[in-house]
Amino acid sequence: MIRSMYSAVSGLRSHQLMMDMVGNNISNVNTHGFKRTYVLFQEVLNQSLSGATAPTDVVGGTNPAQVGLGSTVSATPQNFSQGFLQITNRELDVALQGDGFFVVNNGAEPLYSRSGSFFLDAESRLVTSDGSLVQGWSALPDGTFDPALDADFIRVPLGDLQAPIVTSEVTLAGNLPSNSLVGDVVSSGVELYDTQGNTVPLTVLFTKTAADQWTATASYGDPPTNVPLTDNVVTFVNGEVTVPADFNINIAAGAVPDVGAVSLVIGGNSERKVTQFGDVSTLAVATQNGFPAGSLQTISISPTGDIMGAFSNGQTQPIARLSLATFANPGGLERVTGSTWRPTVNSGLAQVGQANTGNRGLVAPGSLEMSNVDLAQEFTTLIQAQRGFQANSRVVTSADELLQEIVNLKR
Fold it and tell me: Which of 157, 191, 229, 332 is the most buried (most CB within 10 A)?
């Protein structure tokens, strides 16, 4: 009788914890990146009233007789299923589609979060709402990343100047008329950029010198200053460039002040190349890889976690990359305040890398991941917890009534 009362009390405790879990889930139904938890029950232990006996030739065996002593909570698993994405159209809001966590640092330790609502602080560092520094990799000046560097805080220097890039390659494309007369000239111009980001006007002339043969010359500045070319004779066969074989009529280093060697590309496998057909003259500069200095104006985030900067000089290049972490056992992570987790001895070490690699999910820019709490499921679980608590309380009441009857035997 007393045993049943204590069993019921253990059930009350277990269902009270179940109520606490449901209440916490419902309270975080609108918390971005929140993952619901639930309760697993198990029997505490059994008291053996009699043991099992083996069968003999004359009598059969008997099973053990046991009575349970209540229940307890064996685990509170975390459900890391994907939450719905809420579109915000804010450039610093990002959500994860798939496995992984954003890596942040609160000044004491690295933590891991599914909430991607980020901000910039007074030092242009990318931070969370509680001031934790978002971790990732900063790009080198040319927009590439050094794979040997460890993840660190990310700085987004809006307004900072990007150094100019000296022109090192110019691609010429179009058509030279095959019916041109010897002595005819076709010209094309382009602005090169020097080490200070200043423009240097360059003019390239093609002069017809023989059938299927042109001689190229170049000059810069005003008045024009001639520039020697390494290969200035261009020969065509069936309208395609055959000489020079490397399709380059290059400017040597030092020929143009403050501009290094420049490759003038006129052919190759690219669709942009110089040809000689018919009577059409369309020679023009297709591309040049230099640009002046420019200030960072706006940013955007790609699905692979690259933070792209748009500069006032018209250039766009990566300035940083978000780092994502995965774990062998995400359920082993320990919850921390602020919708973050820390690793434990049973979660495994953080495997940090770029989005869309190593089983890491994609980044959804301009959106946030909602909580994965299902209110219909939570209210159903709430009813179960309430009825379980109520039933256990009835057991306590019934045991008390039985004790009262025993006490009343002596009158």
Answer: 229
